[in-house]
Design a protein that fits this description.
mainly alpha, about 0% strand
Length: about 80
């Protein structure tokens, strides 16, 4: 029996919640130790942030926003 089969056999003895936790940990290890190809690596923190939030807006978010939709900025002196 190889290691993957041994892990599988042990997972069969666990309650469902513990088996899910074990799977989450295995997936974490998979992400941690799987080498990233050069094309998928992000060059800096800004790109990583943008990639993390990409697609985070809902389907009904307007995609035709322009300058007319934005408010007018008040001068700092006018706020005093």
């Amino acid at each position: 029996m190889n290691l993957a089969e041994t892990i599988y056999q042990h997972s069969l003895k666990l309650p469902e919640a513990a088996a899910r936790e074990a799977l989450d940990f295995i997936e974490f290890l998979e992400q941690r130790y799987t080498p990233k190809s050069a094309s998928t690596k992000l060059r800096n923190d800004t790109e990583a942030f943008l990639a993390a939030i990409a697609g985070g807006l809902s389907e009904d978010f307007p995609d035709d926003i322009n300058d007319d939709d934005l408010g007018v900025d008040a001068l700092r002196e006018a706020l005093d």
